[in-house]
Write a structure and sequence with these properties.
Distance between the termini: 33 Å
Order of helices and strands: HHHEHEHEEHEHHHEE
CATH class of the largest domain: Alpha Beta
Strand order of the largest sheet: 3-2-1-4-5-7-6
CATH architecture of the largest domain: 3-Layer(aba) Sandwich
Oligomer: single chain
Bound molecules: S-adenosylmethionine
Helix content: 40-55%
CATH topology of the largest domain: Rossmann fold
């Protein structure tokens, strides 16, 4: 199940590799900044970036002196990441092509696991399982930082505001936008490729896994950052 979902993501993101950094989610720059602040990188830190794309987070961590294992299911994204790391002459980046669902590192071997705008692609049981795996991978004192679109399917007023604003923004783009509204209604409504959960749900997954000091902050309309610490 998980693999076929990841294969689909690979196909989708190989095609979007050229455009995501310029035409990504609204307010992406603010979310990247918030994730990097919460990750608090420093020289010598060992980190894993899950769903790294072309490296918006990885590059910032590596520039601060961290050693980053950067994981993505899309080979095209990993090619761009490698080009970016090479052009900045950053040697602390280790790119890995893998579905997040199949990736692992040794127990207590990293200080930071971070992910930005990627985990909403995972199925909910895989999100939950990932929280447990990440706790195992982290050294004591290590942290898990998740930036992502975080909203539900319309039960809460905040969900409805976010969904309405996404629909209005797309509809304003004319027939191409209406087509995307239709596609997104299918993807989000049936949770085919886009499976965001609320900030509260992510906090619950981290607490259930055994993280301490779990907290979340809304960053822009649809996106939030959730952090948990391994004691
Ligand atoms: C929206 S982009 C975000 C990229 C980057 N983290 C950023 O902040 O710009 C989502 C990334 O997650 C990757 N991805 C989606 N599902 C994945 C999975 N199951 N395993 C590994 N990577 C995945 C995609 O290939 C894509 O590069």
């Amino acid at each position: 199940m998980a693999l076929s979902s990841a294969r689909l993501q690979r196909r989708v993101w190989d095609r979007r590799a050229d455009t995501w950094d310029h035409e990504g989610a609204a307010g992406l720059g603010d979310v990247v900044d918030a994730v990097v602040r919460a990750a608090s990188p420093r020289p010598g830190l060992t980190a894993v970036d899950l769903g790294c794309g072309s490296g918006q987070i990885t590059m910032r961590l590596a520039e601060a002196g961290a050693q980053v294992t950067a994981v993505d299911v899309s080979p095209e994204m990993i090619v761009r990441l490698q080009e970016n790391a090479d052009s900045e002459e950053l040697d602390g980046v280790v790119p890995v092509v893998s579905p997040i669902e199949e990736f692992g590192v040794a127990s207590a071997s990293v200080d930071l696991v971070v992910s930005n705008y990627a985990l909403h692609h995972l199925r909910d049981p895989d999100k939950r399982a990932l929280a447990k795996s990440v706790l195992r991978w982290l050294r004591p004192g290590g942290r898990f930082v998740i930036g992502d679109m975080m909203f539900g399917r319309g039960l809460e007023p905040r969900d409805r505001v976010i969904i309405r604003s996404k629909v209005v923004a797309l509809a304003r783009k004319g027939p191409g936008g209406w087509w995307r509204v239709l596609k997104n209604v299918t993807r989000f409504g049936f949770r085919l490729q886009e499976r965001p959960v609320t900030m509260e749900r992510w906090q619950q997954y981290l607490e259930e896994a055994g993280f301490s000091a779990v907290h979340g902050d809304e960053v822009v309309a649809e996106a939030a950052v959730v952090v948990g610490i391994k004691r």
